[in-house]
């Protein structure tokens, strides 16, 4: 059975600019995929191709096996909240939601009213007078209210206050638990880390890393910080160990060892000293993300190679 | 076509259409109301007497002292066609290229609706507004003419009102085609108004040069007004050409919007 989203060699060029480059991405049913990357990395262009709003220059994108550009009906299974939100200013919030519901033919009005209540949307207000955050709440209700099989959310918490963000994350968690596939594009990595079970990192239009969130973190070097009871041993003793990437001495009694792979040799070596404390915090997604972006391999060179 | 999209298209035009409609009806009624005083004064024929015959014809002032000539010269030769064509251009542009430029089309097209259906529903909304305004201006002439002793036949009023509608719809169809091709709203306006100016020039001004008179037959203005519908009634050939050109332009718009990239704001 085809996955919710299948992108193969997806490429989009705008003149001489390559916005998305041979991108391969899959999203299976019930998966929450965090789609992370900075501004201009190609996230929104990729999402727009997934929704049939943007025609690929090469490659393909399929939603459950259907081409979203040719088969508009497949979008009935998708709830979408765009990053750049432009609502019809002439309508009220209620009229906006009603109109979307009519065009979807599948709105669960009870659930819509529940979402309106939980996110604090004011149905009687004119869209023209809404703040950015309140407009986003309307768009989120619109995306969720038909209980779609796939949610495509581009920076969904932009402009939301912390309480509403919290409520939205709870709603998202409930949708995921009910089997909804989610593609969550966000700058807020803690948010992605909280709900996503898979992550794809996009850099200059190409996926540079993808996989389960825990695996992405696990691939990273771990940083051990050892505080010795007396003077710290020479850093060279540790940098000679296989697995040691970098050894620094931030203070006379302290060593900071960046380590790759199983830590047994390091722990054995440290066991020979009188250690006051040893810490090794688990790398978070932000560290993982930054590691892919601090890789100084020149983008232009990589592009030329491809 | 989709009823919800048609409703939204009409709602988007409501305010401006009311203003346009009231202005057109007021213009029409005020022109008819001037007839008794101007006809009694006998000054109408003398007003154009000094002008060259070709220029009189180009400005629609032929037989200006007659009821039909008076209505043609003051309404149906230039002013109302211009208002209908500008209305068709502006409204259609706002609902297609304008909405796309503003980023409003994106959220709508992410819903399970086919792009040609969105365009067609909006086109129908503009056509409906043009139809209602053509009927309203026609009805205004029909109702006020007897009151002000302006003797004009109902068939002629209906025929020329239909011509106004088709001229407006021709421009709307042209805009639909240009927007479908992906042009931005300011470019669509520039091209559509250039075509409008060229079409009027070819119809009304080039014949003054004599040798270029045959070119007038290629102008939608000629198809709509060349047969003098106010006095001669409905023109099958002209109407057929307008219907065919509107259908062709609309088809271009509906086909080209299907697969292209939708612009972001």
From TrEMBL, chain A:
Its main location: membrane. GO terms for cellular component: plasma membrane. It is found in: Cell membrane. CDD domains: ABC_DR_subfamily_A. InterPro entries: AAA+_ATPase, ABC_transporter-like_ATP-bd, ABC_transporter_ATP-binding, P-loop_NTPase. The keyword Transport applies. Residues 5-229 form the ABC transporter domain. Pfam families: ABC_tran (PF00005). It comes from the Bacteria. This is ABC transporter ATP-binding protein.
